[in-house]
Amino acid sequence: MNPPAKKPRGIQDPTSTPAVAAPPTPVMAPPTRDPLPPRAKCVTNPGAPDKPAARRTSEEVTAAQRRQAELEAELIELDAKRIAAVAKLRVERLLADAEEDKNVVRCLSDLQDSDAEGAEGMLSLDLREDSKLICPE
């Protein structure tokens, strides 16, 4: 005997139109990569153990020492120049600070000058009682 036929699932109306499916979105493939990491124990230069060791002549050694001494002397000279420049900047800053402290007006008595211009300037100032609070003498 034949097995019973399966019943179709869903709507089987031949007059109905199937729903339009959205077009499939393209899937971006991941970038290719190396299958294995670089080998750490791989011999890169197999003839290295058999090579003779590099030897320097005495002229090469003295030239290297001379070059090293010149570089050290240049470093010492540059350090001395840097120290001199920093000292010069510090002196200039101290002089500027002293000049600023000299010219700062802390109270009204600092504005009084011995010349005529200073006296005229004092006449135009509004001398009030609260000036005593600012500059007690």
How would you characterize the overall build of this protein?
- Residues 1-65 are annotated as: Disordered.
- Residues 21-38 have a biased composition (Pro residues).
- This protein is an all-alpha fold and 137 residues long.
- The protein has a domain at 60-112.
- 43% of the residues lie in helices and 0% in strands.
- It has three helices and no strands.
- It has helices at 58-103, 116-124, 131-134.
- The termini are far apart.
- Mean pLDDT is 78; it is low at 114-119.
Question: Which blocks of ≥5 consecutive residues have pLDDT under 50?
Answer: 114-119
Strand proportion, as a percent range, falls in under 5%
**Roughly how many Å apart are the termini?**
129 Å
The biggest beta sheet is recorded as: none
Number of helices: 3
Q: What characteristic shape results from the CA principal axes? A: flat
DSSP strand count:
0
List the helices and strands and how they pair.
Blueprint: H1 58-103, H2 116-124, H3 131-134
Region (Disordered): 1-65
Biased composition (Pro residues): 21-38
